[in-house]
Amino acid sequence: MAAIEVSSLTKAYGNLQAVSSISFAVDEGQVFSLLGPNGAGKTTTIEILEGLREKDSGEVKVLGMDPWKDGASLHKRIGVIPQGFTFLPYITPREAIHYYASLFDVKVDADEILKRVILLDSASTHFDRLSGGQKQKVGLALALVNQPDFVFLDEPTTGLDPQARRAVWDVIRNLKREGISVMLTTHYLEEAEELADKVAIMNKGKIITAGTPGEIIVEHGSGEKVRMNGNQALAEYVRSNTGLDVAYSEGVVTVTLKKKEDTLTVLEAVGRSGQEWGNLTVRHDSLEDVFVRLVGSRISEEGQEGPAA
């Protein structure tokens, strides 16, 4: 069943069409990642889904409810971590959970929630003394206070070091195992490729492609490539002896394969060339490679989407 259903969603700010007739669905228990450059329309879309902004037209259902009309009921069933999450400096994670529980008028086992987000060891540490990753885990913990069925995570690992980022990844995987649906926005494309069951890429208010990361890579990628360190002469030899597309740049030879068997053909040509070579790898495009090809740029970690996003 669908946790989110969006059909022909449209939102404009004056003459600017921020979201232009987009449609997608998020299944229950699924991690869904919405990607796009700044100004693509992600923030507006998420705010409409959370019931914070009214749509112009189209149909939107979150957990079977209209986010704008049924916001009071919906907010009891969703959790949200906003971009750049922060909290009171001298409150501890355990105290923060009890505070949020009082706002929702629910009873909670604070230590159990902290255990779920792998933060129990820091339950009594003041927020301002926590590391960046631990602070994000506090946000995750607070998003779980009302026992949500759906969690919105807006850039949950921005600014974290790789170790802290992967710790947050583990928490997101745990949420999925518990059957909680997740909407993830991120500027780390490898994060979406690693965590998301489905991905949608937005640009200029439209969804330009959607599917599993693997499906998107197959549909829009440039195929498998062999890369190795080498010189211009090696590149010319491989090109003339294999008939494959070969590129050379700054000491790297890249050969685009038409089929997997071409790997052996390339290796044989390299061996016969008599040229020096090394560090040979075979790889296919990543989700980031495809994103850059479709959008024309990488997602920037700097800056925020404005009101017309």
What is the overall pLDDT average?
91
Instruction: State the helical fraction.
Output: 25-40%
What separation lies between the terminal Cα atoms? 29 Å
Question: Which percent band covers the strand fraction?
Answer: 25-35%
Provide keyphrases for this structure.
34% helix; 6-stranded mixed β-sheet; alpha/beta; 309 residues; Rossmann fold; 4-stranded antiparallel β-sheet; Alpha-Beta Plaits
Task: Note down, in words, how this protein is organized.
There is one protein chain. By secondary structure, this protein is α/β, with parallel strands linked by helices. 34% of the residues lie in helices and 27% in strands. α3 (93-104) crosses α4 and α5 packs parallel to α6 (162-177). The chain is globular. The chain starts with a strand and ends in a 14-residue tail after the last helix.
Quick recap of the structure?
The protein has 11 helices and 13 strands. It is of the alpha/beta class and 309 residues long. The protein folds into 2 domains: 2-219, Rossmann fold, CATH 3.40.50.300; 224-283, Alpha-Beta Plaits.
Question: Strands, helices and their partners?
Answer:
Elements: E1 2-13, E2 16-27, E3 31-35, H1 42-49, E4 57-62, H2 71-74, E5 78-81, H3 93-104, H4 110-116, H5 132-143, E6 150-154, H6 162-177, E7 181-185, H7 189-195, E8 198-203, E9 206-211, H8 213-220, E10 225-229, H9 232-242, E11 245-249, E12 252-256, H10 262-273, E13 278-283, H11 287-295
Parallel strand pairs: 3-7, 3-8, 5-6, 6-7
Antiparallel strand pairs: 1-2, 1-4, 8-9, 10-12, 10-13, 11-12
